[in-house]
Specification:
The structure is a homodimer. With about 425 residues, chain A is of the alpha+beta class. Chain A has 10 helices and 16 strands. In chain A, strands 1, 2, 3, 4, 5, 6, 14, 15 and 16 form a 9-stranded mixed β-sheet that branches. In chain A, strands 7, 9, 10, 12 and 13 form a 5-stranded antiparallel β-sheet that branches. In chain A, strands 8-11 form a two-stranded antiparallel sheet. In chain A, a hairpin with a 5-residue loop joins strand 1 (about 60) and strand 2. In chain A, helix 1 (about 10-20) runs antiparallel to helix 3 (about 95-115), helix 3 crosses helix 10 (about 395-410) and helix 9 (about 335-345) packs across helix 10 (about 395-410). The two termini of chain A are about 35 Å apart. The model of chain A has no long low-confidence stretch (mean pLDDT about 95). The interface between A and B is large, with 57 and 57 residues.
């Protein structure tokens, strides 16, 4: 362990995070949905901070705030440092917001140090990572990456307002979205600092983790049909208990996920019918959420799960129906960014923990577009999407120091492939 | 297999069952709750059938219809042949009603044969076995057995009508209930024919079963508290998944019940919180219904289940809370009645299948009061409490022949203990 770097920017960043957390659509809790009044207010506030950091911020057609620090000469490809300022309902203060304000803090430190880098830096505050309001997500990052789907403008929120209408009400011009897209030769790479939202770093007693990839996800809706019957009059050998079958399937999911490094498997929803104390369940529906660090691992895991639960159904004489749901390919992080982040973490005296991200992030929008990577910061108890979300000032300082070291040490040639 | 006995009483009994099934509180389905208008109408109808069979029926203070056939001399202790004429909502035609009308058919056959038995027979139609309307059940049989709890008169139905009020509205005098109780020296024994309501006899390809005991029942409400978390960000080794823990417990219940002869174990209700596709369940509540043929078997089974699921909770680091619920002691059938019923079944050419009753019955009210036993008749698919409840005419005829053979072969001295 090294002593703390105590960067001047850390205290300012933490104060800004507290101030930003007061901007909410729901008094008494932090809720800041994409294109909402609170989002508008946050864009205004964060824009002033961009300007204070010496950038000349612009708000683009989807509501992103972007500010550019030139490198040794103007017009060099830019390393994008970004995250989001929208939140879930009743959110914590750090999810997304930390990454944006850390980007500004890096700019402030670079200015203080008088560094001139062999690349430009763009700090961006995306407005739609959580996907709470509209049917789609990553609208801001996809617009920058050039993969925004204009069809998404027709998607409605609960109040029946389309995303396109909300943009216009916000003061934006959705027809200008295609023009936001950065050309590939303008993007050196993308790096994002984010709280881990899980317990791995805390468990490893290390503040920082280098993300290896953003998870490959597959969701499946399963339905088991057995035979309902009287809990007293049907002897065990005669039963086709849909819940006992589902229980065996749930344990198979858990076992396969445990056996597969980096994989997680979750049955979050379950419903048994008819649902009476004295009736053997005749039908059970449950959800499957399977994630892996890469597509091959996840696909193999899904295949094993499906083979096992199908076998369980056959052996028990129950019927299993499966409906394929949401699927998201993995976004592996660029090796040079992983290596650079790991070296930066080590340079300030910590052991970088390599870990996959099971949750989605704006960074995923840049996979296949430019070299992309993420730095995770430990958060208390792994808790996120909750007002109890918490990081220490010391950890924030360490994260900033690492991000700064990464930027200062980055050789643009390493990202040339 | 023997040829069918084709008793004249069988056709009449089946026709009466069809006619009785039309008397309902809910048009279009069979629903006949205790002390309801349909129950009143059924009492009137069945009373005329009692009279047609040559009995002098009376309706007692709880609404039972009772009719007595004297033996070789008047005043001999009576063998009670009884069941119930109330039903569940949307019921089948045979549950309960069969046993009452079979008792009448036995009387008719005895009269036709001119038999004079060394004991009297009382046929009784109880009105409250299903326990659907009021908080208690077995009101009719308990009043006869002398164990009716007068406190039950204060229990209310969903409309706020107390059982006492309902009796008065029905035309009954609840203050006369204690006087209904038969003296022990008036009761030779109690025997009841009932559909099995399960699949054992159908599976054994035999029409009749001799009940060994009415199940010992214990219900427990279980609650598992683990840790909710993001389905993507919490690696498997860090999880305290309440649903995976519950799944292991459900399989333990199933395994222990399978390993314990005569025992059944059912988890009929389950609820997982927060119940989102992408959130690890933090809390799961489920019901346990454990039954055994005798108290010792059931108690040992319950102890094993509780020890195993407590062990599972400890091993997984989740908290298990258990709330003890409904409990009913076993009612073993009298050995001489079991032997007599088995001999009677064999005498007409069938193999009596010995089986416990997992469901409760009026017969249980006579356990410890007088020798008690039950004869089970196979029903289609084991289905009961459902309009699809079905028996064949041939099986009804066989049941009647067996019951008649039992009555004719019964040595009162065998029940003297």
């Amino acid at each position: 362990m090294t002593t703390l770097s105590n960067l001047p920017a850390t205290a300012r960043m933490m104060a800004r995070l507290e101030e930003l957390a007061l901007i909410t659509d729901e008094p008494g809790k932090l809720t800041r949905l994409y294109l909402s009044p609170a989002h508008k207010q946050a864009v205004e506030k964060v824009t002033t901070w961009f300007a204070e950091a010496g950038l000349s911020p612009t708000v683009d057609a989807v509501g992103n705030i972007a500010g550019r620090l030139e490198g040794r000469q103007p017009g060099l490809p830019a390393l994008i440092i970004a995250s989001h300022i929208d939140t879930v309902r009743d959110a914590g203060k750090f999810d997304g917001n930390l990454g944006v304000l850390a980007g500004l803090a890096v700019i402030e430190e670079l200015r203080r140090l008088g560094d001139k880098l062999p690349f430009a830096i763009e700090v961006i505050a995306f407005g739609d990572e959580e996907g709470v309001r509209f049917p789609v997500t990553l609208s801001g990052s996809r617009a920058i990456a050039g993969t925004f789907d204009m069809g998404a403008l027709g998607g409605h929120d609960e109040a029946g307002i389309s995303m396109g209408e909300a943009m216009i009400a916000f003061g934006l011009d959705p027809t200008a979205i295609p023009a936001i897209a950065r050309r590939r030769d303008q993007m050196l790479g993308y790096v994002e600092l984010h709280i881990e939202q899980g317990p791995v770093l805390e468990g490893a007693n290390q503040p920082l983790g280098v993300v290896t990839s953003i998870a490959s996800i597959k969701r499946i809706a399963a339905s088991v049909t057995g035979e309902a019957g009287h809990a007293g009059t049907v002897p065990m050998p005669f039963r086709k208990d849909a819940l006992a079958a589902a229980a065996e399937m749930i344990l198979a999911v858990e076992r396969i996920a445990r056996e597969t490094p980096g994989m997680v498997g979750t049955v979050g929803r379950i419903e048994a019918q008819p649902g009476a104390v004295n009736v053997i369940p005749g039908e059970v529906r449950f959800s499957l959420d399977l994630r892996g660090p890469d597509d091959a691992t996840r696909e193999t895991g899904v295949e094993r799960v499906l083979a096992e639960i199908t076998g369980i159904a056959t052996r028990r004489g129950v019927t299993l129906s499966l409906a394929s749901g949401y699927e998201e390919k993995a976004s592996p992080c660029h090796p040079a960014i992983q290596a650079g982040l790991a070296a930066a973490v080590r340079s300030i005296g910590y052991e970088p923990i390599a870990l996959p991200s099971g949750a989605g992030h704006d960074a995923a929008a840049f996979h296949g577009i430019c070299p992309m990577g993420m730095l995770f910061l430990r958060c208390k108890g792994g808790i996120s999407h909750n007002p109890a979300e918490s990081i220490t000032v010391e950890d924030a300082d360490i994260a900033l120091a690492a991000l700064l070291a990464f930027v200062r040490g980055l050789d643009p040639a390493s990202l040339a492939t």
